[in-house]
Amino acid sequence: MSKILFVDDEPVICRTAKRILTRLGFDVVLAHNAEEALLVYDETEFQAVVSDVRIPGMGGLELTNELKSRNKEAVIFLCSGYMDSLPEGFPVRGFLAKPYDFKELAALLEAALHSAA
């Protein structure tokens, strides 16, 4: 079972993500901000990280850069309701505009994890 770190400051999105992605076969750990995500990331081995771009404190773009400095092979997906895309060449596996379909997210995670294996 693939372990996913899901980072979002909206409790409803976190609960929904955990419920749906767990049902689809993922082991989901939640974090509500980047600082919490980094603490959890350092203690656990994750196959992928999914983060909102706009989270309190350090945002998702900065979180991505920090995760990549710790593990250049980290599989990261970013999501946003405020942006349509990321800067060209930004080091993530994918971007989803909110609102997104969790089944679509699960399919992207599966494809990324299978290609990384």
Short description:
With 117 residues, the protein is α/β, with parallel strands linked by helices.
Describe the structure.
With 117 residues, the protein is of the alpha/beta class. It has a single domain, classed as 3-Layer(aba) Sandwich (Rossmann fold), CATH 3.40.50. Helix content is 42%, strand content 21%. The chain has helices spanning 11-23, 34-43, 60-70, 102-116; strands spanning 3-7, 27-31, 48-52, 76-80, 94-97. Helix 2 runs parallel beside helix 3. It is globular, with a radius of gyration of 13 Å. The two termini are 13 Å apart.
Helical region count?
Answer: 4
What is the CATH architecture term?
A: 3-Layer(aba) Sandwich
**Shape call:** globular
CATH topology: Rossmann fold
N-C termini distance: 13 Å
Chain-averaged pLDDT: 91
Unreliable spans are none
Main CATH class: Alpha Beta
Task: Classify the secondary structure makeup into a structural class.
Answer: alpha/beta
Please trace the helix and strand order, writing H or E for each element: EHEHEHEEH
Number of domains: 1
Going by CATH, the homologous superfamily would be Response regulator
Kindly provide the radius of gyration, computed on alpha-carbon positions and rounded to a whole number of angstroms. Answer: 13 Å
Oligomeric state of shown chains: single chain
Beta-strand content: 15-25%
Strand line-up of the largest beta sheet: 2-1-3-4-5
Specify the biggest β-sheet: 5 strands, parallel
- Count every beta strand, where a strand is a DSSP E run of 2 or more residues: 5
Helix residue percentage: 40-55%
